[in-house]
Design brief:
heterodimer, A: alpha/beta, Rossmann fold, 2 domains, 11 helices, 40% helix, globular, B: mainly alpha, 12 helices
């Protein structure tokens, strides 16, 4: 049999911080090309899951496999080089650098030049540099940020900062993009735009997207499949339609049947 | 009129300022520069006084090629030491890294003080002179400063320089961008050591005598003041800080002991009045625009 392994596979993943169980035996697989959503109430373990995948936190049990190979225990820089890039729930831009420089940092693997060439700044280096800056401008243009390429990242509005972070992550050339609440703090119009943008990016870069977001209607439209976490456990998995009608999900979001009458 | 000897000392101050600045450009507060400066200086002092093949003559003169060779060797030895030590100490962050590097400075100082061949507390005397006057040291010191400045300037457009800035801004985010942050920090640390080592070799000849007191905790604090007064966002900051703060005690000599008070005031008031240092990105931008505007 030659069935291709899923792009990303979580197998019984657990994470404990002291006595707190942040993730408990979570398993699911992300197929190439799909937009996979992760929803759940605050504190359900969604961001912890991202931290495990991207190598920032060590798992207490279970395995993460990337194209069939185990990747748990690798540092975040190794994971990124394998083709997994992420954004952060509380934005971590390089604030005092310009927008262009933020994206250029993401492009650093393409920016590597022979030392002597770089020190002398000869024609070869300058041509390479021009090509890099062009790539950076293209990426910024995708997010309508190219007009402000020379402004500092700190000067951007909240929504623009979110978009710049996605641009920077894309610059590292990922196959899988992890988006941690990309629409947080955006107004409804911006959320609509973001939704269209993610769809466009997926087409253009043949991306697979794993996305955490609280805005459920947006997730229902955007995602091919969803996993629902509650108190560190996966309580549902499937198409948006199936998840929407799952009794366990309804209970997690709206409370149990007994106290459903008591909510305001 | 500033005499040539003071000018050379100012250039040495500027070089050491850049050496402290390089790890800071990756967000690492390292005070190890005096240790590498001492290693380079001691090596040059030993080689030129003990190793006849370098061609030191009885009249105290020294061939220029041997002097240049010592600059290279001093930098190389310091760089090698930084490579070994850096792997260990760069695991530490913030104030802990600062303390570990202060310890390194002390270890090197005590070692030079007690090793059987470094002259003990008296140090090494009569280091031969490649130049007949102090003015002769100006071209090599200036060349070293230009070389260091040029490397710093190139770093701004190189992948390594951008990675250094990214690590300074947010190390964790930089790692998630695929940057091997340990290697970036180590590169800056080694570059800083090479510069300090070469500067030490130059200073040993210039000062004519060398001892363990050349690299002490006091010097580390003075060098840090170069960067704090000058500014840590561009290599021009520590250069300006190094030039000014080295010149100041000498220029204030006419006022007697009050000069120490005035020097202290400058170090105290500098950061209070210019929290970002004298050379800030905004200032450089304004200078850049002014430069463009004045072009025909």
């Amino acid at each position: 049999m030659s069935v291709a392994p899923p792009l990303l596979e979580l197998d019984g993943l657990s994470c404990r911080f002291g006595g707190l169980v942040a993730l408990d035996q979570v398993s699911f697989a992300v197929q190439p090309g799909e937009v996979f959503g992760l929803i759940g109430p605050n504190g359900a373990g969604k961001t912890t899951l991202f931290n495990l995948i991207s190598g920032l936190t060590a798992a207490s049990g279970g395995a993460v496999r990337w194209r069939g190979e185990p990747i748990d225990g690798l540092g975040p820089e190794r994971i990124n080089r394998l083709g997994i890039a992420r954004t952060f729930q509380n934005l971590r831009l390089f604030d005092s650098l310009t927008l262009r420089e933020n994206v250029l940092v993401g492009l650093h693997r393409e920016a590597r030049a022979p030392l002597l060439q770089a020190l002398s700044g000869n024609a070869g280096f300058r041509a390479r540099q021009a090509a890099l800056e062009h790539r950076a401008s293209e990426l910024l243009a995708l997010f309508d940020l190219d007009g402000r390429a020379d402004d500092s990242a700190a000067s951007l509005s909240y929504g623009d900062r979110r978009r710049l972070e996605i641009a920077r992550a894309l610059a590292t050339g990922p196959a899988l993009l992890l988006l941690d609440e990309p629409a947080a703090g955006m107004n409804p119009a911006e959320k609509e735009e973001l939704c269209a943008l993610i769809a466009r990016l997926r087409e253009r870069f043949q991306l697979t997207v794993l996305i955490i977001e609280h805005h459920v209607p947006l997730m229902m439209r955007l995602c091919d499949r969803l996993a629902v976490l509650n108190f560190g456990r996966r309580i549902a998995l499937g198409t948006p339609e199936r998840v929407r009608h799952d009794p366990a999900v309804i209970e997690a979001y709206l409370g149990g049947v007994a106290d459903s009458g008591g909510s305001p | 009129m500033i005499d040539h000897g003071l000018l050379v000392q100012m250039l040495i101050g500027a070089l050491l300022g850049i050496s402290v600045y390089l790890p800071l450009a990756t967000g690492q507060l390292s005070l190890a520069t005096p240790a590498f400066y001492a290693v380079g200086g001691t090596l040059a002092a030993l080689l030129s006084t003990r190793w006849a093949a370098l061609g030191a003559r009885v009249d105290g003169s020294f061939p220029l090629p041997s002097f240049l060779l010592e600059l290279v060797l001093g930098g190389a030895l310091a760089g090698l030491l930084a490579l070994l030590v850096g792997r260990l100490v760069l695991r530490l962050q913030g104030i802990y890294l600062a303390i570990a590097t202060i310890a390194l400075v002390e270890i090197v100082r005590v070692a030079i003080l007690n090793l059987p061949f470094t002259g003990g507390a008296v140090g090494i005397f009569g280091i031969p002179q490649p130049f007949p006057t102090a003015a002769g040291y100006l071209p090599p010191a200036l060349a070293l400063l230009l070389l260091a400045g040029w490397v710093c300037q190139r770093l701004e457009v190189m992948a390594l320089g951008r990675a250094m800035a990214a690590v300074r801004e947010d190390e964790l985010a930089a790692r998630c961008m695929g940057i091997a942050t340990t290697r970036v920090k180590l590169s800056a640390f080694v570059l800083s050591a090479v510069l300090a080592g070469s500067t030490g070799a130059l200073a040993a000849h210039f000062l004519n005598t060398w001892n363990a007191r050349q690299g002490s905790f006091d010097t580390a604090v003075t060098m840090l003041a170069f960067v704090i007064l000058g500014g840590s966002r561009s290599w021009l900051g520590p250069v300006l800080g190094g030039l000014l703060l080295t010149a100041l005690p000498e220029l204030l000599r006419p006022v007697g002991d009050v000069r120490l008070v005035l020097f202290g005031l400058v170090i105290l008031l500098g950061p209070a009045l210019f929290p970002q240092g004298l050379v800030t990105p905004a200032l450089l931008e304004r200078l850049g625009r002014w430069g463009e505007g004045s072009r025909p």
